[in-house]
Design goal:
It is a single chain. By secondary structure, this protein is an all-alpha fold. Helices cover 55% and strands 0% of the residues. The protein is elongated.
Length: 76
């Protein structure tokens, strides 16, 4: 998906030719043409929001333990 977005950006924002994009990305001109043709039909997908993590249930306890540890002297 990142390469697809890069190709579209090069063509639409930077105004590069298909041949120049092919040189810079090492992709076939036919691939680039196809991607640009379907760009109007393709819906861009976005990353999902981060879900809960395994440590979320213990976050408060960990924070407190780290605070206590930070107050302790370096050498004991």
């Amino acid at each position: 998906m990142a390469t697809y977005a890069k190709v579209r950006r090069m063509r639409l924002r930077e105004g590069l030719s298909i041949s120049e994009i092919a040189r810079r990305t090492s992709l076939s001109r036919n691939t680039i043409k196809a991607w640009l043709r379907e760009s109007t039909r393709r819906e861009l997908s976005y990353r999902r929001e981060a879900g809960s993590k395994k440590l979320d249930d213990h976050r408060e306890w960990l924070r407190q333990a780290l605070e206590i540890d930070a107050r302790r002297p370096r050498k004991e």
